[in-house]
Amino acid sequence: MIGTGVLTAVIASDNSNFLTPDYTFEWFPNLGLTPPNLTLTPASPSTTSTISDLKSGDYSLKVTNSLTGCTRDAIYIV
């Protein structure tokens, strides 16, 4: 059964030097950042990522700056 939930992550900056950094987005169908990864749109690298057709539940996201290797994690409940 396909759900109707949608999650979108957007990289934003108030830095005037923020040109086009490469970020990778990894979405997970749980809170523990454990596989399997979910399919994302558009394919990384990008500055935005959306997953859709989600059933209610817990999801997590790991964003990595490809240039610096810095990461940030977030959790979402649909």
Low-confidence stretches: none
**What is the rounded Rg?**
13 Å
**Number of E-type strands:** 5
Question: What's the overall average pLDDT, rounded?
Answer: 77
Biggest sheet strand line-up = 2-4-5
Structural class: mainly beta
Biggest sheet features: 3 strands, antiparallel
Name the helix and strand elements from N-terminus to C-terminus, one letter apiece: EEEEE
Number of helices: 0
Percent of residues in helices: under 10%
Q: How far apart, in Å, are the first and last alpha carbons?
A: 15 Å
Provide keyphrases for this structure.
78 residues; 3-stranded antiparallel β-sheet; globular
Q: What features would you describe in this structure?
A:
By secondary structure, this protein is an all-beta fold. The protein contains no helices and five strands. A three-stranded antiparallel β-sheet has the order 2-4-5, with no helix packed on it. Strands 1-3 form a two-stranded antiparallel ribbon. Strand 4 and strand 5 form a beta hairpin. The protein is globular, with a radius of gyration of 13 Å. The mean pLDDT is 77.
Write the layout of secondary structure elements.
Layout: E1 5-10, E2 23-28, E3 48-54, E4 58-65, E5 71-77
Concise summary:
This protein has no helices and 5 strands. The protein is an all-beta fold and 78 residues long.
